Amino acid sequence: MKLLEVKDLNIEFYDVNPPQKVVKGVSFSMEKGEVLGIVGESGSGKTQTALSILRLLKSGSQISSGQIFFKGRDLAGYTREELQRVRGRKIAMIFQEPMTSLNPVLTVGSQIEEGLLLHTQLSPEERKKRALLAMEEAGLGEVKKLYGKYPHQLSGGMRQRVMIAAALVTEPELLIADEPTTALDVTVQAQILELLKEINKKHGMGILFISHDLAVIRRLCSRVLVMNEGRVEEEGEIHKVFEQPEKEYTKKLLAAIPHRRESLRKRRRG
Fold first, then answer.
1. Listing from the earlier edge strand, what are the strands of the sheet with 231-237?
2. Predicted TM-score (pTM) of this structure
3. E strand or H helix that includes residue 210
4. What Å distances lie between residue 267 and 85, 178, 241, 263, CA to CA?
């Protein structure tokens, strides 16, 4: 059984006239424990595809047709209560800018524990213990001190690790990561990618990683979907897409990677 299967997904923005189709017939699947990347420029439909899995599309947009199966069951058939149980418990999501996702007036610890409060019967002491363990696993130091701090007291990289800890604490089977490293400097970005690799290996957690950057996708994912203007342009194993891209759009994205351009120049000089 596939962990996730998306079939002929179509998404429309209907708050514009005429309505705009932003995702057009997208299909893909993920195995348990797989790390799949979706890459494309702004407006390619990659984020809308990711948001649709948990029915988190903004007001004014909707899935016009298609199916999304999680472990063999169509998510469209879930009741609101069932979907709430899946969100955060079975499928977790982290976003590009944690300051817009974290509540500025709640402590880091209380926000990491929120999933446990919603989905488990653990005591306050047990929740705190699990939260501290998740913070350590997310690479945060001095976790007991950080537990009582507020988001604005942390650096961007630390806030992103808090978001990862909040996702990990309920031990989900699928993590959807929407551009989680874009706002970080190169060093911190590399650390977060390594952390996600470790989490995937340790827990066998499937990761759907959304990015506009093929170089980032290459470091983390085993397979990639290349999206352009709402459609899947190309799909395949990372090494194949990088070494033998079939579509012009994919070639254009690859040519935009700085180290790749430099490597090509060196080869030509040689």
1. 91-94, 174-178, 206-211, 35-39, 223-228, 231-237
2. 0.90
3. strand 206-211
4. 53, 35, 20, 6
What distance in Å separates the CA atoms of residue 45 and residue 23, rounded to the nearest whole number?
Answer: 5
> How far apart are alpha carbons 176 and 153 in whole angstroms?
26
Which helix H or strand E contains 209, and what residues bound it? Answer: strand 206-211
Among residues 240, 239, 236, 206, which one has the least CA distance to residue 224?
Answer: 236
CB 256 within 8 A of CB 216: no
End-to-end CA distance of the chain: 49
Least confident of 59-63, 145-149, 232-236: 59-63
Looking at residue 58, the DSSP 8-state letter turns out to be P
DSSP state of 42: T
Interatomic CA distance for residues 153 and 167, integer angstroms? 20
Q: Which two tokens stand for residue 213?
A: 């950057």
Tokens, residue 181: 């490293």
- Tell the burial category of 25 from Cβ atoms under 10 Å away from its Cβ (0-12, 13-18, 19+): middle
Contacts of 208 (CB under 8 A, 6+ apart): 4, 30, 36, 38, 50, 53, 174, 175, 176, 177
Stretch 42-47: mean pLDDT, rounded?
A: 93
- Find the Cα–Cα–Cα–Cα dihedral 246, 234, 230, 47, rounded to 10°: -130
| Residue with the two structure tokens 């390619």 | 44
